[in-house]
Write a structure and sequence with these properties.
The structure is a homotetramer.
Chain A (H helix, E strand, L loop, with lengths): L8 H15 L7 H17 L6 H4 L4 H25 L3 H15 L2 H4 L4 H5 L4
Chain lengths: ~120, ~120, ~120, ~120
């Protein structure tokens, strides 16, 4: 196992491949199942915030931050695993989506206007 | 705007910072709201798989793969944005979680055994 | 089709059975798929609230309330359908859960104390 | 506390009102927070199915069925609570949605055709 700090998503991807192969778990890792697992982890992450005010969410106590950090890790791991199984370059897809959003929400048009956030979710 | 291909999560993080700042949207990006947005995107991703068999999910048609690619991007973008707001190093957290899981599910003990997958979710 | 106003969850259950049978859709309604659909609908419901403040969520405009009403309906429909497939009496289960919660959170102990909401989610 | 078996969603609604009032928890029950809690519970329900095959999901062991029953109850409780806070008649909304779906997916047109399930999610 590589004990060196991961420098890239590719290294994370490779570590996850090895992890599943060593345990013969690929059989369970259909994209459908991985998409379910990802949504479940995203919800476990959200659960930590459900009764907090927005302000409280900006100042999480150390113990809570530690738990949230682990959920973020679970989400990333399933995200990378699912993208790998589908042959998708995550970073390239994310960059492309920012460019799509930049055209959809031009800064000069939406700046200062909360309409986007009060009329429809942003993405 | 940086038109070069992103090489790292840090570059993605910086692009997302600039995107929100240019539009004065940080006010909406409390960790709580970002956690909600992340869970909503993970669910939109899952929706593409909900009526597919596991086998069909391994062979997505080109048009569907394109839509799924965009949802994966949305999930990564909110994940990076939320981690940034919380001051968490995502890749380091993911690596640490794999190490925790490796101890929790030693390969020699769980290999070939589907018990973990039939009795409790794995992570 | 019964045009009379439903008086009970049983009538809703029967209407959903007929709806699926008429379309030969039972084949898709495995409990697993129904659980996924339910989670997806719950997320579509949540999406309507994601950028709102808690106060704004208490005063939804008419158009938004109409959309939220439809999402609530979708969630109930999948919930009733899934419970039916699993042979579970929803109302009885809900009543039992309230009793469990009443013991877990005795009113005289938790009243006035927000600890439960700041330390762990309530249910 | 009413120990009689609930006969209707209205009785469930009233029991949930009393439960929250007795504990002074209405302050936390903004529609936004309730929508989050509902989505989180729907995900906890889904988690029980995430690694099962569709067939296995049709034959849950007794212990698993017991856990799933509790999650279904949690979902219904938050659904009824949220609908109550928004002044929405759940059963009427569900009935209306079935009528909308009946027009959108006429039985004679979609029967035997899985297109709806292979091209887009049904609802």
């Amino acid at each position: 196992m590589n004990a060196q700090k991961y420098e890239s998503l590719e290294q994370l991807r490779d570590a996850l491949r090895a992890f599943a192969a060593d345990r013969d778990w690929d059989q369970f890792h259909s994209p459908k199942n991985l998409a379910i697992a990802l949504a479940v982890e995203a919800s476990e992450l959200l659960e930590h915030f459900q009764w907090l005010t927005e302000d409280a969410s900006r100042q999480l106590p150390a113990e809570k931050l530690k738990e949230v950090r682990e959920e973020l890790a679970d989400v990333l791991n399933y995200l990378v695993r699912l993208s790998d199984k589908l042959g998708i370059d995550l970073l390239a897809a994310a960059q492309q989506k920012i460019e799509i959003n930049a055209k959809k929400y031009p800064a000069d048009k939406v700046r200062g206007s909360s309409r986007k956030y009060t009329e429809r979710p942003s993405e």
